[in-house]
Amino acid sequence: MSDTQLASSGAAPLPHPVRPSVPALPAGTAFFAGQVALVTGSESGIGRETARQLCQQGAAVVLNGRNAERLAQTRQEFEAAGYAVTSCVADVTDYAACEALVGTALEAFGRLDILIANASISQRAYFADMQPGVFRQVLDSNVYGTVFPLKAALPHLVRSRGSVTFISSISALNGMPSGSAYCAGKAAVANLAHTLRLELADTGIHFGVVHIGFTQNDPDKRVLAADGQPVPIAHRPPRWQKSQAEVAAIILRHIRRRRRRTVISALGRLIVLVHTWLPRLGDWIVLRTLRRMRHFYE
Ligand SMILES: NC(=O)c1ccc[n+]([C@@H]2O[C@H](COP(=O)([O-])OP(=O)(O)OC[C@H]3O[C@@H](n4cnc5c(N)ncnc54)[C@H](OP(=O)(O)O)[C@@H]3O)[C@@H](O)[C@H]2O)c1
């Protein structure tokens, strides 16, 4: 919807509370005061930490996930901390559920300023072994799980000249063995952000992508094996991992600065460099490490 279409629809743009460019903020600054954020997949992990920091910086937040019990626990924890929060159980690969999710934000807080498409299922499975339905499940959660919340939220984000962030991965920058559907989905949403930035340029909405690197996981995080069974994620050296709080702080800075792309970690920036300038070297490194450190990928 363009600004002209918005005007003719009779819906007045909301006051725009986002400052265009800011330096790093001292802790406790309520930069997001008056704004409403929807974070998909925020009952756990990085999404929960991002939601927490948004609340701490003054936003009202809608939490989401598919597990009602875990979502209720997270909501209770946030309410106990005095945060402005509500929640909605919704599978973000279901468009009707996404409409209900956005409806929850509007009903509770009356507007929507920030969408963070974070919900995702990952995998530990080589393409040749993967059941087709499992490939689709992983791809759908990353692609339609991003597209559908945005489709449902778009008219409201136009009104607020809001901000949309797709959570991608550094593994989408070059591809990664045992991550076919996940990498394809994460690369797709990065490309989608670019297209939408062009297509919806006159709306003033910020479209950005954050490519996250290795991050500490909740102990009960599960990804899909080739047969669709949930399994623990591959072991990553702890010293290579950022904490969820560090990653959340980077996501918030990305939103405050309305950045197009943020690549987290030195490894992520190295992948960008090698992929762009020395792609054959990049493949050689991956193939060598795949032979020598197979457990790293599995
Ligand atoms: N951790 C890392 O090292 C890392 C690295 C690169 C990128 N990332 C990205 O960062 C984001 C967060 O990752 P994380 O490590 O925090 O993962 P996580 O702990 O598994 O969190 C993912 C969240 O998404 C929810 N979810 C999954 N499918 C959903 C669906 N269809 N509808 C609604 N909610 C759904 C999950 O809850 P339910 O399953 O109960 O619904 C969970 O709350 C993801 O996009 C991930 O790809 C993470």
From TrEMBL:
Residue stretches in coiled coil: none
Gene3D superfamilies: NAD(P)-binding Rossmann-like Domain (3.40.50.720)
One GO MF term: oxidoreductase activity
Oxidoreductase keyword on record: yes
Keywords, comma-separated and alphabetical: Oxidoreductase
The Ketoreductase domain, residue ranges: 35-215
Pfam family, one: adh_short
One GO CC term on file: membrane
InterPro entries hit by this protein: KR_dom, NAD(P)-bd_dom_sf, Sc_DH/Rdtase_CS, SDR_fam
Family to which the UniProt record says this protein belongs: Belongs to the short-chain dehydrogenases/reductases (SDR) family.
The name this protein goes by in its record: SDR family oxidoreductase
Record organism: Hymenobacter aquaticus
